[in-house]
Specification:
With 61 residues, this protein is mostly helical. The protein is built from 2 helices and no strands. Keywords: Coiled coil, Cytoplasm, Exonuclease, Hydrolase, Nuclease.
């Protein structure tokens, strides 16, 4: 099951904090960045879905 927007947003915040703290290991930083980037794509997709729903609701009024 997909996580909610809020859960994904919280996770990306956690990953960005880890990325800021991780100054020693470049390989680990790259893995964290890839995870955050993937979540960012999911967040953009979720926002696009919400926007489409809002437009449908707005056009029905």
């Amino acid at each position: 099951m997909d996580k909610s927007f809020e859960e994904n947003y919280k996770k990306i915040e956690e990953l960005l904090e880890k990325l800021e703290e991780n100054k020693e290991n470049l390989d680990e930083s790259i893995k964290i960045y890839e995870q955050a980037n993937s979540l960012y794509d999911k967040l953009k997709s979720q926002l696009a879905e919400y926007q489409a729903k809002i437009e449908v609701i707005g056009s029905n009024e």
